[in-house]
Design brief:
The protein has 368 residues and is an alpha/beta fold. Helices cover 33% and strands 30% of the residues. The strands form 4 sheets. A 5-stranded mixed sheet has the order 3-2-1-6-10, with helices on both faces. The protein has a 5-stranded mixed sheet with strand order 13-12-11-14-15, sandwiched between helices. The radius of gyration is 21 Å and the shape is globular.
Length: 368
């Protein structure tokens, strides 16, 4: 049982990943073979309103039933799985510690001393894990080791543990959504130079998680309360349609990349829904710009190489061109299916949906 977040950097035994999100539960099983990874199964079931709220499981019993349903529909038999918590409930920090510490001393310093300095709540309320990354010499000529510190509230991890226990499962690996996403695009991230950072923008149902990544490691993270639901709601309200959790309406839309939020053109005047949705997107790009500016003001001699759009909102038509135009930075929509060379049914998993598969596929990769 995961009691202290200790398996954050561990490995799963079966390659079964389960992603819990506000509007869906995704279950995947990947199998390692000589040529790479093979997708054995990928199933998604909808989550009714009220079960997963503001990034947390509000009804463990109902969520456990949905997990069992997804496993049954996918014909996956598993006892141990990998899953992830949203970034909004987590703290990720890079901290330097003296290089001369042995493993036991390092563990004691990080978990019992350093961790409390970076948490916005009491140390005893947190589950904490860490990973040694590498050695460096600081400005005073002292050799140190850089450690990636990760923490989340115990009440969050305890709820995940109990929910999966109700579903008859044990959590082998409990990590953070952005870590799973990074795993699916790590080959692309390796193409960046040592002073080039990528910005991972995971547009989920009711929020967007922003992570700035340097050398494959998150350096800065932030959650913005804007997602596909807010876009859908703005669109429906402008078109006098009833509010709905079903965001399928968005998937058929193409965002005009050459327009800004305040433009009054034939397209937006004829389509008030598009204009309303673009106002929401404009707010999101403004928040992203603030995050990038804040990070660059703290870091010397760094530049942003690329914006990587992920999540259900990352696959919207031409959203990459919209972000490129608004932020003057190259933006692309990630495709974890192609990145991992997985063979899938093109009709079942169209390009517009693939950016939303990054987390669950990254969880399934833990075994491989």
């Amino acid at each position: 049982m995961v009691k202290s977040f200790k398996n954050l950097f561990g490995r799963s035994n079966q390659g079964v990943g389960i992603e819990i999100a506000p509007q869906r539960v995704n279950v995947v099983k990947l199998r390692k073979q000589r040529q790479g990874l093979k997708l054995d199964s990928l199933t998604s079931v909808p989550v009714p309103e009220g079960i997963f709220v503001e990034g947390q499981i509000a009804d463990p019993g109902a969520m456990a039933q949905l997990i069992q349903q997804a496993l049954s529909e996918s014909k996956i038999k598993a006892n141990r799985v990998a899953t992830a918590v949203p970034g909004r409930d987590s703290i990720v920090r890079l901290i330097p510690v003296p290089a001369e510490l042995d493993d036991k001393e390092l563990r004691d310093m990080v978990l019992n001393h350093e961790a409390g300095l970076y948490l916005p709540y009491a140390r005893e309320e947190a589950d904490v894990d860490y990973q040694k990354l590498g050695y460096f010499v600081d400005e005073d000529g002292i050799e140190k080791v850089q450690v990636l510190l990760v923490a989340t509230r115990k009440e969050v991890t305890d709820t995940y543990i109990s929910t999966f226990e109700l579903a008859g499962l044990q959590i082998d690996v409990l990590e953070i959504n952005s870590f799973a996403l990074i795993r699916t695009i790590r080959e692309q991230l390796r193409q960046y130079g040592p002073q080039e950072a990528g910005v991972l923008v995971d547009i989920e149902f009711d929020s967007t998680e922003i992570a700035i990544i340097l050398n494959g490691v998150p350096q800065f993270s932030r959650t913005v309360p804007i997602g596909t639901y807010q876009m859908q709601t703005a669109l429906a309200r402008a078109m006098n349609l009833p509010a709905s959790r079903d965001t399928q309406l968005l998937q058929g839309m193409t965002i005009p990349s050459d327009l800004t939020e305040g433009d009054k053109t034939g397209m937006t005047e004829a389509n008030p829904g598009m204009a309303s949705m673009m106002r929401v997107l404009g707010e999101l790009t403004d928040e992203l710009r603030r995050s990038i500016d804040f990070y660059l003001n703290q870091a010397l001699d760094l530049e942003i190489a690329q914006i990587l759009l992920a999540g259900p909102g990352g696959g919207l038509g031409q959203i990459n061109e919209f972000f490129t135009q608004r932020l003057n930075l190259p933006a692309i929509q990630i495709d974890p299916v192609t990145a991992l060379s997985l063979q899938v049914d093109e009709e079942k998993y169209p390009l517009v949906e693939r950016p939303g598969l990054g987390i669950v596929l990254g969880l399934g990769m833990r075994e491989a």
